[in-house]
Amino acid sequence: NRPTSNIANVYRGTFVHSTQQTALQILEDELLGVDTDGKIAFIERGAELDRLSRTFGFSPTEVTQLAQHEFFMPGLVDTHIHAPQYSYIGTALDMPLLQWLDTYTFPVESNFKDLKFAHSVYSKVVKRTLRNGTTTACYFATIHTDASLLLGQIANDFGQRALVGKVCMDRNDSVKHYKETNQESQEETCRFIAELLNKKYPLVRPVVTPRFALSCTAALLGQLGTIAKDNNLHIQSHISENKEEIKLVLELFPESESYTDVYLKHNLLTDKTVMAHGCHLSDEELVLFRKTGASLSHCPNSNISLCSGMLDVRNVLKHKVKLGLGTDVAGGYSASMLDAVRRTLDTSKVLTIQNPEYDTLNFEEVFRLATLGGSQALSLDGQTGNFEVGKDFDALRVNVAAPGGPIDLVQCKEPKILLEKFLNLGDDRNIVEVFVAGRKVVPFAEPTTE
Ligand code: GUN
Ligand code: ZN
Questions:
Q1: Going by DSSP bridges, is the β-strand pair 161-165/7-17 parallel, antiparallel, or unpaired?
Q2: What is the pLDDT of residue 309?
Q3: Which ligand is nearest to the Cα of residue 332, counting in written order?
């Protein structure tokens, strides 16, 4: 007579993840149970099968055994991605940031007033990122409230965990029709938040999104800080991406001591804030991040593609600032977080070429940034980021030797080497299944709302 089980699935095999203490913990022949709410009920040695099956009331015959060359890792966390910019991904990278925004980005984003166009692009970006193993995404949409709500709906339908931001900008001198009045921006932000929360999507949350200091009046920045505070919401924006941008910000906000101080003065630096880039932040500014609990999103593909700069990740970690990785589609030309991992390693190696004393990042550290680090940067580490009991089961089932995949020779069975190979040369063909909160979201079950 077994107790009524609340265990939905049990997996046995190799699990790799990061913890507070170690960048890479490898658990071989481990058992992980997922309960009917999608949470991790236990993660213990395989030898404990009999006891666990009695305690949790499941049959040992129901256990799913991973194959050779397979392992589970936590889902990837993309801490910064522009969903509308997926429409021109892989093109238009021939200009520095500010000209790139005026020439390509603002004109394209203004088209997302059209909900049909928005639906088509947003479905594609959510599916592509999920297939690439992004279980959590922190999205910028556009200034259009209804299209931004649609992005939330699509993420929910496909089962992706998401923070979704309706972009706020009441200043734009180049594309005059792509901006809001101050009042519109405030009112529409409040409508967006209320309507998205009202949907009660379990995994999708609104994030207050001033585009960046140059797109917003001081009044709007202050109002958005208040809205975030009153509703206890996440905040996202951009900071210190490019030198020209920094110069203009300091001219526009002469009473501020630094770019970081602009956001600080408007109550936009909180422990639920994530700022993209930060390539050129001073040590004093990093101290402000640390003190407020605000985090950074490192987007190396974008930083190189737009010739913005190279973030010194080691220095950010030394300052104990929370840090995750982002694709920054489409300043970045890849929607895969595996690319963000590789570009992070590349950038660290370029810094080492420039200064041989530099403490180069290793792949284990970058693996942590792409998973647990990202969840911490988004203040979602209570729910996701690794395989701790009580967290949601957000996971990738990886087969390093997947037939038809990019990896031909797998001579070694050592999990650490398998992970390194996957991070360096794997792709979506190696990601055989993706789970978010225990639900299998890849391969897709097409939603009925198409
Ligand atoms: N700064 C303000 N807007 C943007 C954007 O869309 N992309 C990037 N990379 N930086 C920005
Ligand atoms: Zn961005």
A1: unpaired
A2: 98
A3: 1
Domains identified in the chain, total number: 2
**Which atom of ligand 1 lies nearest, measured to the CA of 245?**
1
The CATH number of whichever domain residue 309 belongs to comes to: 3.20.20.140
Query: Which ligand 1 atom minimizes the distance to the CA of 331?
Result: 9
Cα–ligand 1 centroid distance for 101 (angstroms): 7
Residues 280 and 399 in one domain: no
**Secondary structure of the chain: what % helix, strand, coil (to 5)?**
40, 20, 35
Ligand approaching nearest to the C-alpha of 239: 1
The Cα 83–Cα 129 span in angstroms is: 10
Q: Do 309 and 242 touch, CB atoms closer than 8 A?
A: yes
Q: ipTM > 0.90?
A: yes
- Answer whether residue 5 shows pLDDT above 90: no
**Residue 302 Cα to ligand 2 middle (Å):** 8
For ligand 1, say whether the CB of 331 is within 6 Å of any of its atoms: yes
Ligand 1 pocket test, candidate residues 86, 106, 211, most atoms within 8 A of CB: 211
Question: Which residue has 């556009």 as its token pair?
Answer: 142
User: Which residues are close to ligand 2, an ion, with C-beta < 5 A?
Assistant: 276, 328
| CATH code of the domain in which 28 resides | 2.30.40.10
Question: What is the band of 446 on the pLDDT scale with cuts at 50, 70, 90?
Answer: low
Of all protein residues, the one whose alpha carbon is nearest to atom 7 of ligand 1 is 331
Ligand 1 centroid, distance to 412 Cα (angstroms): 42
Instruction: Give pLDDT, residue 312.
Output: 98
Same domain assignment for residues 68 and 86: no
Q: Which atom of ligand 1 is nearest to the CA of 214?
A: 2
Distance CA 146, CA 274 (A): 24
Q: Hey, what are 48's tokens?
A: 């404990």
Determine the average pLDDT of the residues in 412-436.
97
pLDDT over 70 percentage in the chain: 98
pLDDT of 130 strictly over 90: yes
Q: Mutate which of 140, 216, 241 to test ligand 1's pocket (most atoms within 8 Å of Cβ)?
A: 241
SS3 322: strand
Q: Give me the phi and psi of 70, to 5 degrees please.
A: -105, 150
| pLDDT tens by residue, 150-186 | 999 999 999 999 999 999 999 999 999 999 999 999 9
Q: Which domain holds residue 359?
A: 76-377
